[in-house]
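hey can u check if this looks right to u? its 391 residues, i copy pasted from the old doc so theres a chance i mangled smth
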Amino acid sequence: MADARERIAVVVTTISRGEFLRAYAAAIRQYAGPEHVTLYVVGDLNTPAECKLAAGALAREGIDCRYLDTELQAEVLRPFPELSALIPYRSDARRNVGYLAAFRDRNRVIVTVDDDNFPIDRSPFFAEHGLVGGEVEHVEGISDTGWFNPGALLEAIDRQGRPGRLFPRGFPYARRAENESRLTITKTRGKVGINVGLWLGEPDVDAVSRLEAGYDVHGLRSEPCFLGPRERMPINSQNTALVWHAIPAYYFVLQRRPIGGLAIDRFGDIFSGYFVQLCAEAVGQRVRIGTPLVRQDRNAHNLFRDLSQELPGIVLLESMQELLRQPLTPARSYASAYLELAERIERFSREQTGLFWDDHARAYFAEMARAMRLWVAACVELGGGAEALAC
């Protein structure tokens, strides 16, 4: 068996019966054998019993598939009661428990996926995500605004069959009209801290875009690239890989808090993705964008409910643009960069006024900053001390 530091973990939370696990098992067998990959399947209170049975069936076939039921999750979180209170059930945030388990087990690369995203044969899932932690050479994705649109890398059509120009969920609306994202001609070399795979089928766009246009993605326009210096872009939790050292800066942010009369949701991964890319920049690592591709066969959604949940995040993000553009102090670890960011977020939120910036919003961001600090403390303990987290 490979050393744990050379292993790749896949973390997924689900309320499905677990049928999707077969697709990942096939990708594992095609990659390098089951001894190199662990699946962490994080159940929830409403996950059907069949999911645990499906995970157990794979384990009997030799796939390292670990179903984390509520008892095992409680065991992971038992040393961290304050943090545990900020990882609610019946929430995507349960994937945080899988992140902690994979981090504790010293997996070199930790991949986060959704249960409606499936590896495809022509885009080797584990080989591409396995580039995390190593040095590669790529062109860079840049823009005139400092906001790179990964949707520019995709070939897409709208529901009328016309070529579409899509922006991923979490891309600021104020930066869409004038956005011109492109690739540099020359290549640069860098160490990959985060790998962002993209999607075929239904892309990850927000409810506004789904209601207005709808999109179908059928390919990549170009080769993978690095996110350019000082550029920002949304990163979701559907098909993203992180180096072990980055997990202390990757708490899936608490959602479902009242803001402006609505309950914010569907932005936990978006905030987390912006935060971790700032920390990657601070430690001198790069964000790679493009592959592997997965196919999204999207679970059923009520788009109007999605819109009501996304609207607070959409509006708040507009006022957070300068906060997210401002680089952090160069750091030796993701953890120390993340702590600096927590301070900035808390200070920033106290000063904001305007639409949705009510007392509930300020309390939400204060709670977020507290959770970020608790997350780092847990990772320091699980990771063997602050020095062990240095890149």
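The two ends are 25 Å apart (CA to CA).
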